[in-house]
Amino acid sequence: VQIFLPIADLPVNIFLILAMGLAVGFISGMFGIGGGFLMTPLLIFLGISPAVAVASVTGHISASSFSGAISYWRRRAVDLALAFVLLAGGLLGTVSGVWLFTLLRAIGQLDITIGISYVLLLGIVGTLMVTESVRAIMRARQGKPVELRRPGSHTWIHGLPLKLRFKRSRIYVSAIPVWGIGFLIGFIGAVMGIGGGFILVPLLIYVLRVPTATVIGTSMLLTLVTMASATVMHAVTNHLVDAVLALILMVGGVTGAQFGARAGQKISGERLRLLLGLLVLAVGIRFALDLVLPPESLYSIRPLETNV
Amino acid sequence: MMRSPAFTLVAALGAFVASPAAAERLVSSLSNHRVMVTSNFTGEELVLFGGIEQDASSRPRRSGYDIVVTVTGPRQTMVTFRKSRALGIWYNADSRVFENAPAYLAVLSNRPLDAITNTETLRRLQLGLEFVPLPQRASLNIADSANDDPFRLAFIKLKTDHGLYREVSNAVTFLTPALFRASIPLPAEVPVGTYEVDVRLFADGAMIARTPAPFEVYKSGFEQVVTNAAREHGFLYGLATSMMAVFTGWLASAVFRRD
Q1: Which of A7, A104, B33, B146 has the maximal Cβ count within 10 Å?
Q2: ipTM score of complex
Q3: Helices A50-74 and A14-31 meet at what angle, rounded to 10?
Q4: How far is B30 from B213, CA to CA, in rounded Å?
Q5: E strands within B118-164?
Q6: Hey, are the CB atoms on B42 and A301 less than 8 Å from each other?
Q7: pLDDT, tens digit (0-9, with 9 covering 90-100), for A93-104
Q8: pTM for this entry
């Protein structure tokens, strides 16, 4: 069944989009991430313009992160104070991100920027996750107890001023790195159309030493607010949010996420991180090939922006 | 003998006279003057019927009649980018702006254009994809692009690949020597706006009559509402999309709640 997308201006198969939403939702529920880094490339592959894909996926991630945030909230696994400080940075990051997005689109360098950012980000994060989880699995095989990275090992981060106490996470850190991380996530999220959960979670764990219990819930709350505001900002500045596309993705996504979350509980943490790392790496390699291999056509066309 | 509906249609339309000086008159009518883009729109094919009326002064034509129908969609300023390689990475290095290029262009005829008339006439009438004017913005002044300009050729090729530009030399069929039918294919990606249809009659290599037959492509109902909302009320539209996301997320967690 074909449905005509009003903003993307092309017909798509409604069941295909729904299935994509389900599949990505399953993965996002399983790993506790938004899944934007998978959804955006899939939409672009379908022929939807990168700009519309990035802008519409923000709506999809809002839905799945809200659904996730509710269940973590019920388990009291959300650190509101931490989320609030991250958010202060995140909102400013989102504003700057949407601004850069608009600028890059105007000068025709949006695709290449999205491409290179994906390669770098996915390549680095994927490699780190794979090596870390393989090491953890090896250690478990050898029968050694799982080594927990616990606070105590202080770094320069902990020497910064403006210290705040986050009660639920039981940490005492400077507001500056927290704010900075929020800014970074908001910024890359808006430019690349990803929630940034897969970067935020490791940053919170390894840099701020936030305990695993509150990390995912807090990350989901942050993702919800930055992505919902990115949706509004993309709608205001670029008029490229396709609500019909977003709705179909949301319905598939939130349903898939519920089943994914159940499947995820049956797999051990290290295996889960290894799988996610491999997935992240695979998407990164796919983007790298696009940049390096000779393109099918040297030329591309698009309407000139009049509002920039 | 049954009269074809086309004939009745054409007969009812004697009013359109293209060029009174010529001995032949050209009349035409479209199957639909308003094409509606709805949520199940996957493209459409318009049919143009036309007739050639001869009067007492008409001389017999040696090679018969030829018809060239040019359908020009709404104007759109487009950028064409060319990729280059730097540090092993392909990126958009060079670009050209095509000022007010037709978003849709179809040149339909009953036989190849170069068989209908000579290149000089095609160039003068700006007929066919090869000779359509595509003004390029070069820094400050705007000039028509040369026919063999690589950016122009790439632009036409990409538009053709999307089905938005086409030159079809068998899209016009003669039902009788004086009655013809042309099918205008509109792919799903057609932009909304006013489309000009220019029907030209050729005989012995010269254009002897022409007539216009415009139509409109518009979004209707739901599609219209969404597009307008996105364009004109960006903030509320974005807010509504976010609320929709929150609601969907809440609904899922309520439906699947296990306790």
Answers
A1: A7
A2: 0.72
A3: 50
A4: 7
A5: 135-138, 141-144
A6: no
A7: 888 888 888 888
A8: 0.71
